[in-house]
Amino acid sequence: MGWGFFLSELAVLFRRRRTWAMLAALAAVPILIAVAIRLTDGGDGRGPAFLDRITQNGLFVGLSALAVAIPLFLPLTVGVVAGDSVAGEASTGTLRYLLVSPVGRIRLLIVKFAAAAVFCLAATLTVTVAGILIGLALFPVGPVALISGDTVSVAESLLRSLLIAIYVTLGLLGLAAIGLFISTLTDAPVGAMAATVVVSIVAQVLGQLSQTEWLHPWLFSYYWLDFGDLLRQPIEWSSFGANALLQLAYVAVFGALAYGRFATKDVLS
């Protein structure tokens, strides 16, 4: 892949103020949830998953924040990074110089996707870690009662939170591949970002319609909120594996489409 190029790409990505602004916005999600619950003494129990458990155990702040961030905030930030990956280089005129370096086109796409995947993990961990920290600060923390009724220690619950973060990261890889493909179609990064976010919204709307039920298992967003299976004793791995296979299929298909488009792209125009 070219580790020097990959590390350089990561350095460029995480030096941008926009990247840190998006991560800060994601970190604000669990903080807002925790503060709202603290000020209202838990409310009436309505809201996203695990919200009613936060007052009893602060470790549920991160899980509830993920349930809030997955439908919109995480896809939005991933869409920005993936949509900008190639189109941003083209719009600033640096794409031709990258390929002259020399950096092969396949290597360029692989590095761009790998950087987007790292951002997916960073974004998910930001929500999770911020949720855990604010939960520790505002609420009591102790052994966690799982969906199956069993209770696990704080250490094991933190490990499961990490597994859930990895699960959510895997679920975002298909969208990242779609964004990479869209980014090869245009030299306007804003258009590629917007199109990627729109694709995410359309997939979730289709996933809510009973008329398109036959399509639901093929949507990249189908398993996004099924991380509850990791909160059972023993862990139910079927959704984890199905999610990974589905995202792998999207990465393969849209990675091939991205290469097919980018291999013939005129970077000198």
Describe this structure as you would to a colleague.
The chain is mainly alpha-helical. It contains nine helices and two strands, in the order ααααααββααα. The longest helix is centred in the middle third of the chain and has 34 residues. A two-stranded antiparallel sheet has the order 1-2. The model has no long low-confidence stretch (mean pLDDT 90).
Architecture blueprint of SSEs:
Elements: H1 3-15, H2 17-40, H3 60-69, H4 73-92, H5 95-100, H6 105-138, E1 144-145, E2 151-152, H7 154-184, H8 189-206, H9 238-262
Antiparallel strand pairs: 1-2
- Describe the biggest sheet? 2 strands, antiparallel
Number of contiguous helices: 9
Strand content: under 5%
The count of DSSP E runs of length 2 or more, i.e. the number of strands, is: 2
Order of strands, widest sheet: 1-2
Q: Quick one: overall form?
A: globular
Radius of gyration based on Cα positions: 20 Å
Order of helices and strands: HHHHHHEEHHH
Name the average pLDDT: 90
Helix coverage percent: 55-70%
Compact summary:
This protein is 67% helix and 1% strand. With 269 residues, the chain is mostly helical.
